[in-house]
Amino acid sequence: AWTHGDPRKVIHPTDSRGQFCGQQGTPNENFCTPEFRSSRKVGFGVGGPMSLVPKSVPAAPPCPPPVQICVSKCPDRYMTYLTAHGNPTSLDYYRNFCTPEFRSSRKTPLEVLKDRECPAMLIPSTPLARRCFPAIQAKKGVIMVGNETTYDDGQGRRRNVTELLEGAKKANVVLETRQLAMKIFEDYTVSWYWIIIGLIIAMVASLIFIVLLRFLAGIMVWVMIVMVILVLGYGIFHCYMEYAKLKGEAGSDVSLTDLGFQTDLRVYLHLRQTWLAFLIILCVLELVIVLLLIFLRKRILIAIALIKEASRAVGHVMSSLLFPLCTFFLLCLCIAYWASTAVFLSTSNEAVYKVFNESSCPFSGHTCKPETFNTSNVTKLCPDAQCLFAFYGGETAYHKYLIVLQFFNVFMFFWLANFVIALGQVTLAGAFASYYWAFKKPDDMPAFPLFSAFGRALRYHTGSLAFGSLVLAIVQVIRVILEYLDHRLKAAENKFAKFLLSCLKCCFWCLEKFIKFLNRNAYIMIAIYGTNFCTSARNAFFLLMRNIIRVAVLDKVTDFLFFLGKLLIVGSVGILAFFFFTQRIKLVQDTAPPLNYYWVPILTVIVGSYLIAHGFFSVYGMCVDTLFLCFLEDLERNDGSAEKPYFMSQNLRKLLKKTNKSQPEA
């Protein structure tokens, strides 16, 4: 790709011969902006189409490709070729927007337009991304092109510019998008420092929340459980009151089976049987939750203790909170490499020229070379044939398999990205495992646990990380291929194929989630024991299966705390940003910057706050998972004797009623 590709095809426009506009060393080095016109359409900057050839002239297939020329500047006035043809001054101006072949004004207008040497009409245009777009704008509800509402059609009639809107619709969308982008950019220029302040507040709030979990985790979990029980209790009370209120009312005793299916769901709320069903369901849920609390209370206490212990571990390895920045930087490199390679691949095509003609010709549609076309037999057999640029493509094996190479590029992106994420996970797991397996915390910990874990991961475990990433990348590429096939088969009417594709997408989605879960725990075992990926994955899986109830409880408790933390941080910072940027805080009302769209900085702060909170909690979540696996290993491998003491904290030992026997004297 890097050998054959040419990113200039994306950045710089080309003319109809495939030559770049404004590039030094080319015939168009002094012409920066292309003006477009098609074989049967008028040149209009890039705007609305008008008939170039009178209807009496038949169109012979194949239709020639759109004509594009490079110009030094976009047209700034209305003008038709019929008007310019009889005026030397106007014709000199019009010549700037004609092809280089246009040399003489001796041809009739019909011949010039038929030969596609000049556009039939010029429209005031504005440059955007090195291309000319119609200067369409609305002033006080009046549609204008340039500064006029009408134009001369070349036959002495004035027409309304609204007739151009249909043809220039897509170009108008581009211009409106540009105006919107400019306003958003202006908002960022006046509010960027306030956005940074909002993100700093989110960072501080995330750090405070993690520190407070050491003291408030138990309270927050039990308050959540009590609130769930109370909400369900109120639901039971409300359903009973509604059930009792409907007693004796006409039509309320109709059964659900007799009523059948109704599109208006409010009809069911007038039936006693509906509220009775709700009442039974809520009572069953309430009973199940109460029974689970009774039987799982000890496991919930263990989960709370592990969360508190994770907060202490993060406090001893504070540098871990900044480590996601390293992962983010490496991911940016992966994305940049993938994107640049994809651009080089997509621009690897060569300029393809084909034969176009107005009359029947046996060579019509054949490929040709402009350098030798005039001396070939084609011009002798078909005098009106032209060798024109058709598209970018190629006939070699490399060009035929570009889509395969793109899929391979996507596969390598997934592999590299998953490797970077795995490197971050095994580094954090190694740092937090060194905290757990330190008998005297934190005295027995390494001086720099995060850097030590990072060095071990790079030196000993790159093969395991690459293999685990490979397995996940294969599944992800299969999912991409399925999505691609689904997109291609959208117009198909084969319901069985669609059903089969949907089932496959669902299965591979579940498989990807399972592999991510397994990989995460395998990397923790790699960080603890240094075993290879397959051994670590097997040991982690069976260890978790032997403690499946503890896994489920800890998972749900931590999910709740992380959800609550993200909601609290993003919600509070978002509300603060809303009141500040909408100037509703009187103390700083004059400080807030004037904005075109106040939602621009607010959304930026909300999204940024979520990403910051997610980064902090991802570290915390990795810490909880690592300590949990270490805790399970500790329980299975040690017995509290002097030879095999427990490494868990005193709080966990007290909760489990475990003790360490005193060490034997030397």
Automatic annotation (TrEMBL):
The keyword Transport applies. Keywords: Antiport, Cell membrane, Glycoprotein, Membrane, Mitochondrion, Mitochondrion outer membrane, Phosphoprotein, Transmembrane, Transmembrane helix, Transport. The chain crosses the membrane at residues 192-212, 219-237, 275-296, 317-339, 412-439, 460-482, 522-545, 557-581, 597-617. InterPro entries: Choline_transptr-like (IPR007603). One of its GO terms (cellular component) is mitochondrial outer membrane. It is found in: Cell membrane; Mitochondrion outer membrane. Pfam families: Choline_transpo. It catalyses: ethanolamine(out) + n H(+)(in) = ethanolamine(in) + n H(+)(out); choline(out) + n H(+)(in) = choline(in) + n H(+)(out). It is a multi-pass membrane protein. GO terms for molecular function: antiporter activity. Belongs to the CTL (choline transporter-like) family. Choline transporter. This is Choline transporter-like protein. It comes from Illadopsis cleaveri (blackcap illadopsis). The gene is Slc44a2.
